[in-house]
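Researcher: Sequence recovery benchmark, item below. Answer with residues only.
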């Protein structure tokens, strides 16, 4: 058998070897083609990885910056509110101070008057020492700075009405009683003055009749009486004139509708009479 195998033709052996070689070559991987250009060096990226200490420092810094920003905003808010309060106070002071009054001598006079009250009440009892300086203060302020004092009173009254309404009502009642008492005192003083003046005039008339001396002319009472009579006559004339004016205005107001109605009637009659005349003129033309 080995001999038979050895006797195979060489052509068959060569064919078999070539086929095997082709199979081997066909199944081998293809080689990668090399580029004719140089290869680019790839970029190397370094990743910064913070440590734990750096992370803690960053957290602390961010917290500090946030706290600083919050504190700064709060401080700015307080400053803004304070500036608003300053502007409000400035506007209120400007509204209270009258532009027609000068504060430089007025406040000086008020201060001097208040010190005068303190000096006068220095050796007095405790009530006078407590009562006289405020009285001198208010009286001098009313005398030297009347408009500013009135504005200040109005502002204090507004504050009282806003924040202390019950006390404001009681204060208003007390002011009304005080005003009524003052009016009664003024009326009583006026009546007493008139009574004293009348008594003096009667006494002077009797002395003048008894002695024949012209005491009224000497004392100037006659001229004063004449002036008083002239003033009374002028007031009476003015009152009569105002009454007559009121009556005339009332009559005019009552007659105005009638006058308007009469004018309207006259206008209507005139309108009714005008067209025939126009037609006659057209016919004549």
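Model:
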């Amino acid at each position: 058998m080995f001999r038979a195998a050895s006797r195979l033709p060489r052509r068959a052996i060569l064919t078999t070897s070539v086929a095997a070689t082709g199979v081997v070559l066909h199944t081998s991987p293809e080689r990668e083609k090399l580029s004719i250009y140089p290869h680019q060096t790839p970029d190397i990226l370094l990743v910064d990885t913070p440590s734990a200490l750096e992370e803690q420092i960053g957290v602390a810094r961010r917290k500090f910056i946030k706290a600083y920003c919050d504190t700064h905003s709060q401080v700015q808010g307080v400053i803004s509110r304070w500036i608003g309060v300053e502007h409000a106070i400035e506007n209120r002071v400007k509204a209270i101070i009258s532009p027609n009054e000068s504060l430089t001598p007025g406040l000086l006079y008020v201060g001097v008057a208040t010190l005068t009250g303190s000096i006068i009440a220095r050796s007095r009892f405790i009530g006078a020492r407590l009562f006289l300086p405020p009285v001198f203060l208010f009286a001098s302020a009313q005398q030297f700075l009347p408009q500013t004092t009135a504005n200040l009173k109005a502002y204090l009254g507004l504050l009282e009405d806003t924040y202390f309404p019950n006390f404001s009502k009681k204060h208003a009642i007390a002011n009304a009683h005080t005003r009524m008492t003052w009016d009664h005192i003024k009326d009583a003083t006026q009546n007493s003055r008139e009574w004293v003046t009348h008594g003096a005039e009667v006494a002077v008339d009797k002395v003048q009749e008894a002695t024949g001396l012209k005491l009224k002319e000497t004392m100037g009472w006659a001229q004063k009486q004449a002036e008083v009579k002239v003033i009374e006559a002028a007031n009476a004339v003015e009152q009569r004139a105002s009454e007559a004016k009121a009556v005339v205005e009332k009559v005019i107001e009552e007659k105005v509708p009638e006058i308007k109605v009469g004018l309207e009637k006259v206008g209507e009659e005139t309108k009714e009479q005008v067209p025939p005349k126009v037609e006659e003129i057209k016919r004549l033309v």
